[in-house]
Design a protein that fits this description.
One of its GO terms (cellular component) is outer membrane-bounded periplasmic space. This protein has about 325 residues and is α/β, with parallel strands linked by helices. Helices cover about 45% and strands about 10% of the residues. The protein has two domains: about 1-160, Rossmann fold; about 160-320, 3-Layer(aba) Sandwich (Rossmann fold), CATH 3.40.50.1980.
């Protein structure tokens, strides 16, 4: 009884700290954005109670054999991506990645919070009032996220093994695709995401960093465009010209499907190199962009092996089966 009373008192103190911290002027919050990063050497118990506040952190935690006590809602396939539903069955949700519920996080009484400066820099003092917090600069650096969580939870050996497997797969893919395509390698790649009223082509982020590591090149039109470009007019279709195109479509959205058909039926689309050579592939936006962790990265690499007709050893296939894949992903090696 006394222990329960002590726990409730501790939680109320945290909630009061949060309420008080909300009165901190915005300029003070901005100046304290590095506060969470300074806790990067936090090391918690062998079975830590962790809350993950971005998708890549949730993916990475599961890959390391950790079950968070709290996670944020997924961007698609709400409330959680299909490939993470089984390992996260019954786990509490603490709001949106862009707006986590601080009071709910406090009531969960975590040992550790996994955050991102990009998403949560302004609420750094509030998170620190709840629990030790570690943070990365971005939400898409899956290797950085994996290593950070491993270092904070004593899972360094597991992370090293996961990254070694990844490096081996990358090396194997690069060797096989160079042999398969010969002079046609490296290929220029366009990663295109259709929305209801525009099209985005990406050159960096989670997808771009992986494709770059695998040896793909950027289209000439996009080499100086930062994250990529937003296109609103079909007259801009020539910007998408590349040797291969991967198209991300959000499922069950008729407006997006209609917009895709409008662009794909345009005469300029038919002149694209990837269209002429039959190298336009629809891919899963969860594994190719939204998942943000090493499990999603391995599923994305599985897709690339399959699209290029490259072989994977049984050992490689087993290594990608660290977590259930989306139900709609075909030809799964798992």
């Amino acid at each position: 009884m006394q222990a329960g009373h002590s726990h409730r008192c501790k939680i109320w103190m945290r909630v009061l700290l949060i309420a008080g911290a909300t009165l901190i002027p915005s300029f003070a919050l901005a100046n304290s954005q590095q506060a969470i990063s300074k806790n990067s050497l936090v090391h918690v118990a062998s079975a830590p109670r962790i809350v993950t506040l971005y998708q890549g952190a949730t993916d990475s935690a599961v890959a390391l054999g950790l079950t968070p006590i709290g996670v944020v809602d997924s961007w698609l396939e709400k409330p959680m991506y299909h490939y993470l539903r089984e390992p996260l069955d019954g786990v509490e949700h603490v709001g949106l990645e862009t707006q986590p519920n601080l009071e709910k996080i406090a009531w969960l009484d975590p040992d550790l919070v996994i955050a991102s400066d990009f998403r949560h820099g302004r609420i750094a003092p509030l998170l620190a009032a709840i629990a030790p917090t570690v943070s990365t600069n971005t939400v898409f650096g899956f290797k950085t996220t994996l290593t950070m969580i491993a270092n904070a939870t004593g899972r360094e050996a597991e992370a090293d093994e996961l990254l070694q497997r990844w490096d081996e797969r990358v090396s194997d893919f690069r060797q096989q695709i160079a042999e398969r395509l010969g002079r046609e390698w490296p290929q220029k790649v366009a990663v295109v995401r259709f929305k209801s009223d525009h099209v985005r082509i990406y050159t960096s982020g989670f997808t771009g960093s992986i494709l770059n590591e695998l040896g793909f090149k950027q289209p000439d039109t996009l080499q100086t465009q930062g994250w990529g470009m937003k296109l609103t007019n079909t007259e801009n279709i020539p910007v998408l010209d590349a040797d291969v195109m991967f198209v991300l479509l959000e499922p069950d959205d008729p407006a997006i499907a209609d917009n895709y058909q409008r662009w794909a039926n345009h005469p300029l689309w038919q002149q694209l190199s990837a269209v002429k050579s039959g190298r336009v592939f629809d891919v899963d936006p969860v594994s190719w962009m939204m998942g943000g962790g090493i499990l999603a990265a391995n599923t994305m690499l599985d897709d690339l092996y399959r699209h290029y007709g490259l072989s994977q050893s049984l050992e490689q296939q087993q290594h990608t089966c660290l977590s259930p894949l989306p139900n709609h992903v075909e030809e799964s090696a798992c």
